[in-house]
From TrEMBL:
Source taxonomy: Eukaryota, Fungi, Dikarya, Ascomycota, Pezizomycotina
Family annotation (InterPro entries): 6-blade_b-propeller_TolB-like (IPR011042), Serum_paraoxonase/arylesterase (IPR051288)
Native organism: Decorospora gaudefroyi
Name assigned to this protein: Calcium-dependent phosphotriesterase
PANTHER family recorded: PARAOXONASE (PTHR11799), SERUM PARAOXONASE_ARYLESTERASE 2 (PTHR11799:SF30)
Length: 392
């Protein structure tokens, strides 16, 4: 009898978990390469800057100025602290293709491409040649750019820059480090140095690639959302825990959305600005692993992600040997075959898929941003060349 109770209790505890895993694996199955169906609901779309940009994880829109910031890191092939690729730096590769934050002026008509896309020059920054940017965030009021740097030597840091858009210069102000920001991924600015930051894992790949993968596959809630203040580091605290926390965005001043790449889906929280606390409200299931989130000026939640996580892992593993100018085998390792998925969500409209591609046209989508007024949007791709520009 007692044993039966134990079984029942164990089942009650595990049932939602088993169901979640079932949904994930059935999602993977439905999205398997042989069954994958492309979809496009944009009026117009094209891949821009194929020859100039590679491995852009982030795109961030500054609608007021009509510019986008892009964070692109070709070095991610050999160094990915989230996926767990660690090839030691080689003299051969050094300086060949370095990481950049770019400013893209998408709103000025008839601008030559070379004028429209400019790399930000980092000044007063010692290690500009060895920079591994991940999430970026811009605070318009103070022209402050926050960049997560996945450092090889000094652990993960947040770099704070003062940006002059006109001169394309980012002056380094400080490096911010905190033990509670151990696997930082995305940043949402609350203004004046106050930030919400996600940690993607409890056990980062740098500490143990194996345990980090177990954490991902078992969907253990080791990721977190942390509040921090770069002017008052002692105010830092953990607000929520969830599996593989990735993108973070605010729908309005009291609602925070966080992507979980392994659950998979989006968790909605009520944010209390006075107490700086989060209260879980609801979960939106998605047919793909959501990577990053943004919110457009009409209040829609925008997202992009990975329909078939195993394909992304395969690409990230192969990339360790990628040499764009290397042997046939090294060139093959630079291929990107991981599919893309782009969608939007609103309370009224629900979840709507906008674009799906098997990776042939645009692979490994991570972020969608949209300028509602100008009717344009952009999608970045973690291991892709160029940026997908869409018109609606
Ligand atoms: C996610 O998107 C936001 C909003 O565009 C951007 O600021 C951020 O850098 C992105 N983060 C990551 C890790 O891709
Ligand atoms: C940023 O990361 C790079 C690459 O790991 C590292 O060389 C550099 O020192 C880091 N910058 C800071 C300020 O920690
Ligand atoms: C904020 O957004 C949420 C989710 O869309 C909505 O339920 C809530 O009513 C909004 N709150 C305000 C104050 O607009
Ligand atoms: C590949 O070779 C071309 C032409 O020599 C050069 O411009 C480019 O920078 C090289 N790319 C890499 C990644 O080494």
């Amino acid at each position: 009898m007692a044993r039966r109770y134990i079984y029942l209790i164990a089942l009650a505890i595990l049932a939602p978990y088993v169901y979640d895993r079932y949904v994930i694996f059935s999602g993977l199955w439905a999205n398997r390469p042989s069954k994958f169906q492309n979809l496009n609901s944009f009026k117009n779309h094209e891949v821009k800057f194929r020859d100039r940009l590679r491995n852009c994880e982030d795109v961030l829109l500054e609608e007021g100025m009509g510019i986008a910031f892009l964070s692109c890191n070709p070095g991610r092939d050999q160094w990915n602290t989230v996926m767990g690729t660690f090839v030691p730096p080689s003299a051969e590769r050094a300086g060949k293709e370095s990481a950049h934050i770019w400013i893209y002026d998408y709103s000025t008509p008839n601008l030559a491409d070379s004028e429209a896309l400019r790399p930000l020059k980092l000044t007063d920054y010692d290690n500009a040649a060895d920079f591994q940017p991940l999430g970026i965030e811009f605070d318009t009021a103070t022209s402050t750019l926050y960049v997560i740097n996945h450092s090889r030597d000094s652990g993960n840091t947040m770099e704070v820059f003062q940006v002059s858009v006109q001169d394309s210069v980012a002056k380094h102000l400080k490096t911010f480090k905190h033990p509670m920001l151990h696997t930082p991924n995305s940043i949402h600015s609350l203004g004046d140095g106050k930030l919400l930051v996600t940690n993607d894992h409890y056990i980062g790949s740098l500490i143990s690639p194996f345990l980090s993968k177990v954490e991902t596959f078992a969907s253990i809630p080791g990721g977190s959302v942390v509040y921090t203040d770069i002017h008052n580091p002692s105010h830092t605290k953990t607000l929520a825990r969830l599996p593989f926390a990735n993108g973070i965005a605010m729908l309005n001043s009291t609602t925070v959305a966080v992507a979980s790449s392994s659950k998979p889906g989006i968790l909605i929280y009520a944010f209390n600005p006075d107490e700086r606390s989060l209260r879980y409200k609801k979960y939106i299931r998605t047919p793909s692993a959501v990577d990053n989130l943004s919110v457009d000026s009409a209040g829609k939640l925008l997202m992009a992600g990975h329909p078939f996580g195993l394909a992304l892992m395969k690409v990230s593993q192969a990339r360790a040997n990628c040499e764009m100018n290397g042997t046939e085998e090294q060139k093959k390792a630079c291929e990107c075959t991981s599919p893309s998925w782009v969608a939007e969500w609103s309370e009224e409209g629900g979840l709507k898929t906008l674009y799906k591609d098997d990776g042939e046209e645009f692979c490994s989508s991570t972020t969608l941003v949209r300028d509602v007024g100008r009717g344009v949007g952009f999608v970045s791709g973690l291991y892709e060349r160029g940026l997908l520009a869409v018109k609606e």
